[in-house]
Amino acid sequence: MTQSERLIFGPAARRPTSGLLAPVMWLGGLIATLVAMAVGAVLAVVTAAAVAVIALIAAVLVFFAGLAMRARRTMTVRNRRSDDGVIEARKVDGAWVTYGWERQGR
Question: Is 98 helix (H, G, I), strand (E, B) or coil?
Fold first, then answer.
């Protein structure tokens, strides 16, 4: 062990590995590790469920937005059809000329 390691770790680095408390400490470390893994697994499942719920809500929102856009397009087409069917008319040399007649059945 170098001098810098002795300063960093201190006397805890020279802890004896044998004794009566060594197996108890090992068992405590094992239990703490298992508890930490279980908590991590539960948090991972909760996070995954939250992401799935957010994705589901986003999909429903996009679906309803698509329905709204489709309804808007349908109403726009109906409003255009309620006219005479003339899209544009201009007066050329004293006579009205129309452009863009909508043909029925297109």
Answer: strand
How many residues can be counted in the chain? 106
Q: What are phi and psi of 38, to 5 degrees?
A: -65, -45
pTM of the shown model? 0.49
C-alpha 36/C-alpha 42 separation (Å) is 10
List CB contacts of 12: < 8 A, sequence separation 6 or more. none
| Cβ atoms of residues 90 and 96 within 8 Å | yes
**CA gap 73, 69 in Å, rounded:** 6
Q: Give, rounded to a whole angstrom, the gap between the first and last alpha carbons of the chain.
A: 88
- Averaged pLDDT for residues 45-62: 98
Q: 88 is written with which tokens?
A: 């544009």
Q: How many helices (H) and strands (E) does the chain have?
A: 2, 2
Separation CA 99–CA 105 (nearest Å): 18
Could you read off the pLDDT of 71-101 as tens digits, one per residue? 888 776 665 555 555 567 788 888 888 776 6
